[in-house]
Amino acid sequence: MTTDLVPTPPTALGPPETRGHTEIADRVLERIAVRAVTEVDQAGGVPRRLLGVPLGRAKAGPDPQVTAHVDGHLATVAMTVSVAYPAPIRQVSRCVRERVAARIGELTGLDACEVDIDVARLTHPAAPRTTVDHEAPSAPPQAVDRQRRRAAIRAFRPRRTLPAVLIAALLAAVALLATIQVVASLINRDAQVLPVTWLTRAGHDLRWDDPAVLAAAAAILAVGVLLVTLALAPGRPRMIALRSEDPQTTVGITRAGLRHCLTAAVGGLDGIDRAHVRLRRRRVRVNADSPLHDVGDLPQRVRQAVTGRLDELSPMRPLHVRTTVRGREE
Hints:
Oligomer: single chain
Distance between the termini: 127 Å
Mean pLDDT: 78
């Protein structure tokens, strides 16, 4: 027996308003507006700022700051852009407004009824690259060394981790105790985590000119000045910066590693039993022991070995070498 299959006719769709609802997030409009601004010549973005200070590292081609809001079928957009000087600001702004409204209408079907543009910055267009046959004049060696030294200081700057952790832990503990005390007072409980009674009595009895108050204020002021000094003082760098052939590369060696290198250079000399190297900020002190009664030219040889190894390492700042060789007493 053969059965013929009759296709079922498709179900008729209802009116468009009954088929569902599509919601477009505000962030989608913001990204569309950002891309639309990049399609307009002589218009760009601006870095984010806080109280006039740029936030984060400066980067090439920042995105414009855009805020969008969707209300039904209407969309409002507010943006902050930059214009390349000397392009006409009104003409560039009109092009940006038209491009943003057109892109939003094409991609989302919404009507961009309002596009507010704030021109916050005028930028200089990038100069075209030119090729010349002669070599560009190089910077003076002193200026190059100064730039490399500053880069090394920034890279090997000591970290104030321990003071920062201690202060943060102390402030967190005080804030926690104060929070517990306040919450306990609000629920009519006595937490007794802070000497509130003693503090109240002291605030009532003591005067500003009392010696105890002045001494406590002086101690707190001294601690504050010490912390500020620790935060601002450069301190001893974590590593000793070395010269590099690549100006974009910063190379360094630890103080312990430099001591080991110099100790090995002195210890390999004939007539030296033991060597001890100490590093100061700008000096190298070498004390060596010899089994010989007459050290002869050993101090000069030790100095040559140390200066030779320093020349191989080539530190940014020259180190002054002082050597002492002690012979065996008779």
